[in-house]
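dude i think i finally got it to work??
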Amino acid sequence: MQIHVLASGSSGNSIYFKLGQTRLLVDAGISTRRIERSLAEIGVKAGEIDALLITHEHTDHIKGLDVLVRKYQMPVYAQSKTWEMIACRGNLPSGCRRELADSIDIGGVRAEPFSISHDAADPVGFCFYHQNYKCTVVTDLGVVTKNVEDALAYADAVVLESNHDAFMLENGPYPRSLKQRIKGASGHLSNHDAARALVSIPRKERMHVFLAHLSQQNNHPDLAENTVTGILSGHGCEVGREIVLHRTYRDCVSSYVK
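look at this
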């Protein structure tokens, strides 16, 4: 199992998974050139990707979609309502554009989308299953619902939104309307929200967690990690053994390999 967060945040998102021999990319919110360069850093060619899966249609998740899919002719999966909102859909080869189902098999991986609360047409997270491994991606959500908790439960590895520090957001430069959107039920999870989600779920002996989609204006990797660590420790979780936290950065690859 390999997870490489190529980019994470409001300026662009893309995550590479290798489970067995199957290579998947979740979102293409950065340029094709940058995806190619980031993959090359971990010894992967973009043409080796078996499928691209899209969480939702916001620009920071699909910026590189058009060029990447046309260049490499890879299959790309999204919800039907999401496709309706993607302006470049008509540019893509017809054989590449595919709709998500409740469960799809891609190589040796079963991918299951699940609904999340965000201000997009039909946003989803993903669970990936391969042999005994479970990986979950859930970013861009305002609240942690029961189905999100179920998606996180017993995962070996998770990419989880830890978007903002509530104090920084409240006292930062954003206009009130944007602050309300971020804090709302269709917005983004705070560091505290992420920690509470991890506390509430059943887990295996060890879970690796990438704290993702950090706001440049309203968060910092040190702050996110320290806040989540403090809350987990306060609930009796041994951070570093039961839950291993990984930071993500805007301009460098964050990785976990098992």
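The domain at 2-257 is CATH 3.60.15.10 (Metallo-beta-lactamase; Chain A).
im so relieved honestly
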